[in-house]
Amino acid sequence: MTTTVDVTLSSTLIDELTNNNTASSVYVVYYDNGGPTTGTWTTLLTDGTVVGGTAASISSTLSGESVPVTLPGSFASGKIYILAQSEANGANGPSLSSLITQQSDINAQTAAANHFGYDSVELNLTGTATDAGNLTSVVQYGLSLGMGVSYTSGASASVGYDITGTALETLLAHAGATLSTYSTGPLAGSLASAIPPATRWTGPAMSPPSARLPATSRFPASSMAARMPAAPTIMPVISITR
User: Fold this and answer.
1) Confidence band (pLDDT; 50, 70, 90) for 83?
2) pLDDT given at position 27
3) How is the chain classified by DSSP, letter by letter?
4) What is the pLDDT of residues 29-62, one digit of tens each?
5) What pTM did the predictor assign?
């Protein structure tokens, strides 16, 4: 059975990336642990427009556009990355899909050199009670993500950051994280990456830097919609239908 992952970009992010700008892009690439090492790419936004997007509601006060990404039935576990590239008009560098040839190429150094920020989620989709999904902001934090699942029983579960993205950035800075901002394009000056400190944070407890959906039951044939707090302008949403 295939799994459809709907990635929704907020109208705020879309407006920032496309206002008098046609050089910025947003991509999704997934790596199936049993699939090709090159990953499978989908372009969400390019040339000033969302590719194949449909209107979607993120919250009562925020809308966006959703683009479906289909995971094959053979996808049992793996990682999905969202990459937002901020380029000034006239930039003619290589596309990220041609620049990144393996999962290890997605790192802070490559991101800084090519003006993109990224974050990821992990999924287990084996059709068993241990199926789960989690946000993976352990190596680095780049985007305010959230996801949730509505079970066929009527129950639901969700994960995300229980504070605003701006507040999380402040906590990460106090914890000793290395913060990097976009250096060019419409997102210049906005947070692109937060690299955790090498030593363990010993200050006041922080809201979880990563979260996990409980393995209450397998992902059902129902929608999985994100529930997110207020956050900075970089706000993608992961929705999953199976």
Assistant:
1) very high
2) 96
3) --EEEEEEEEHHHHHHHHTT--S-EEEEEEEETTS-TT-EEEEEEETTEETT-EEEESSSS-EEEEEEEEEPTT--EEEEEEEEE---TT--PPPHHHH--SGGG-SHHHHHHTTEEEEEEEEE-SSSTT-EEEE--SS-B-S---EEEE-TTS-EEEE--SS-HHHHHHHHHHTT-EEEE--SSTTTTSEEEEEPPSSPP-SS--S-SS-B---SS---SSEE-----S--S--EEEEEE-
4) 999 988 888 899 999 999 999 999 999 887 778 8
5) 0.80
